[in-house]
Structures are given as C-alpha cells and as structure tokens.
Design a protein that fits this description.
Elements (H helix, E strand, L loop, with lengths): L2 H24 L12 H18 L7 H17 L5 E7 L2 E10 L4 E11 L9 H17 L7 E8 L13 H12 L2 E9 L28 E6 L3 H12 L6 E6 L11 H6 L4 E5 L21 H20 L5
Parallel strand pairs: 3-4, 3-5, 5-8, 6-7
Antiparallel strand pairs: 1-2, 2-4, 6-8
Helix pairs in contact: 2-4, 2-8, 4-8, 6-8
C-alpha cells in the first residue's frame, strides 16, 4: 500500500471514529410508538415485488418490452391511487426510457421539495426483486400512505429508469437526466432520499459485512436499515434518522462519509450530489449482506416483507415529519 492510500485510510478511520461519537451523542433513539406493521402493507409490498420481479422479470433497455411493462405497472398503480403521473422521456440505446413522477403538494413551503426516488430497472441477467423491486414497492406503498397527508413542503416521488450498468455513473442514467433538469429549472430540492434495496434482513451473528475498518463501529447482525450520505449531507442525514426513529422502533444505523467508500455512492443519490443537492440513501446495505445481489437468484421469495413493511412505515412517518419541520431543512 502506497503512502497515499495509507493517508486515505487514516482519514477514513478518523471520520469513522468521529461518526461513531456523533451517533452516540446525537442519534440516541427517540421514544417511538410501538406498532406492528399492518398485514395489508406487507401483502401490498409482496404483490408489487412479485409483479416486477416475478411476472415482468428482468427489465432494462436490453429487454425493452419488460422495461416498458414495469413503467406501465408503476403508472397504473399511481393512477389507481388517484395521482396524476408526469413522465420525463428520453431515448437511449434506441429505447424510449421514462422517469415517472407524482407530486404531493405542500402548503406553507410549497416551493421547498423533498424528493424520494427508486430505480425500477434491473441489472442484466437478474429479475431484480431486491435490486430494486423492493425500492419501487416501497415507493408505491409510501405514495399510498402519504396520499392524504397535510404537508408544509412539497413531496415528490420519482421512479427512475436506467440506474444499472451500462448507465450507472454516466450521462444517460435516469436520475442523472432528472437531477440535471431539476437544477436547470431551479428546483429547490431540500433533500433527496434514494430507496436502494430494502428487503434483506438476518438476525444471525456475522451476517452483516462492511468495508475494511467500518465493522469496528457497527453491528455484525444484518437486522437493521441503514441511512447513508456523503459528508455534505450529514446534517440532514441526522435529522432524517431522528425523524425515522420518532416514527418506528425498527433498528437503524447511519453513516456520513466519503463518496469513495465502496457502496456509498452506488445509487441514484450520486446524481443529486453531482448537482449540489443534499441527498442520502436508505438501504439494507446490498452486497454487504445480500448474497443474491446482481444474480439470477434475486427473486421475490428472498424478501422479508414483514420487516420491509416496518421500514416503510418508519419512512412514511419520517417523510411527513421532515416535510412539516420548521425552517432550516
């Protein structure tokens, strides 16, 4: 290892030590109401995942009919819930691709936006139940739960296309197209939340893994949900975690660190960081616990729908709280 890598390692270790102290000092669990998730929420999540990853299956520009079928399903579900769906369309690899959006208008601070998004495409060769059928299912359940909420800030829910390779990190990534247009419009997005793999949980010791060093500070059981951000978004990360803890007793861990740490920037939040928006990812930590990541075995029966429903319940409460917090978000 060269001196440059040693220096980076020391900085990461320092940041992790500070992060652990911050979690201890600032992220003490808030007293939350004890409530079991409704059975219908778990059933609804299962239905969405089974449709996307079971009936439709692998969905990307290399299987354009399946990609279009996934978009049509999301649109129909939102319309059934009573929303007007907006589409941002563009053509890549000769395939029409769509970002789909619904809006819950705010009142007192309608110009301030909280955006929650999940990508609906799957990687080549995978039906994508957890990656990212679970994120899309959560998005559809959140829209149902928040439909009649009274909000001070506007909440936008967006289903992004083309997150997976060959688009990830490049200009035709759906969230990149969206975030660039939002910046050009001057959209006042106060926080973007990326839902990326929410369905895998395990209580066994040693079931959770991490990049080097990080395991010193976090649990070894994969029974929690993680909130992850870059350093620029760390203050909103803490507020989001506090709002989540005020809404559920589900275990949550948080991390604000450098974007170079493997996995930290590996979803749609990256597109918003690039446009200087504050953003975070909510995730079960993907390949750090889920053995079927980016494989043909990422199928609907692998998902823990009961615990996923608890996470979605907490997210719904957190989003509503953040949308109604005072000035300064």
């Amino acid at each position: 290892m060269g001196t440059g890598m040693i220096a980076i390692g020391m900085v990461v270790l320092s940041a992790m030590t500070a992060q652990a102290a911050a979690r201890s000092a600032e992220d003490k669990p808030i007293s939350a109401p004890a409530a079991a998730p409704a059975q219908d929420a778990a059933a609804s999540l299962r239905e969405h995942v089974e449709t996307l990853a079971g009936q439709i299956g692998e969905r990307n520009v290399f299987r354009p009919q399946a990609l279009a079928a996934a978009a049509a399903y999301i649109r129909s579900e939102w319309e059934r819930q009573g929303y007007r769906v907006s589409a941002q369309s563009y053509v890549t690899h000769g395939v029409v691709s769509e970002n789909l959006e619904v809006t819950l208008p705010g009142a007192a601070r309608a110009g301030e936006i909280i955006l929650v998004g999940a990508h609906y495409d799957s990687v080549l060769g995978s039906p994508g139940a957890n990656d990212n059928g679970s994120g899309v299912a959560a998005l559809l359940e959140l829209s149902r739960k928040l439909k009649d909420a009274r909000l001070a800030r506007t909440v936008k829910l967006v289903a992004f296309v083309n997150e997976e390779p060959p688009f990830f990190y490049w200009g035709e990534m759906g969230s990149g197209v969206y975030a660039k247009a939002a910046r050009e419009r001057g959209d006042d997005i106060r926080l973007m939340v990326s839902l990326e793999m929410l369905g895998a949980y395990d209580d066994a010791p040693g079931s959770q893994h991490y990049p080097p060093v990080f395991g010193w500070f976090y649990p070894d059981r994969a029974n929690f949900i993680a909130f992850v951000s870059n350093l620029a978004s760390r203050h909103l990360l803490r507020r989001a975690v506090a709002a989540f803890r005020a809404s559920t007793n589900f275990p949550v861990e948080s991390l604000a660190t450098f974007e170079i740490v493997p996995g930290v920037a590996w979803s749609d939040q990256l597109s918003f960081w690039r446009e200087d928006y504050r953003a975070l990812m909510v995730t079960d930590t993907a390949f750090y616990r889920y053995a079927y990541y980016h494989t043909a075995q990422d199928t609907p029966e692998k998902i823990d729908y009961r615990r996923m429903a608890e996470v979605v319940e907490g997210l719904a409460g957190a989003i509503e709280r953040l949308a109604n917090e005072g000035e300064g978000l």
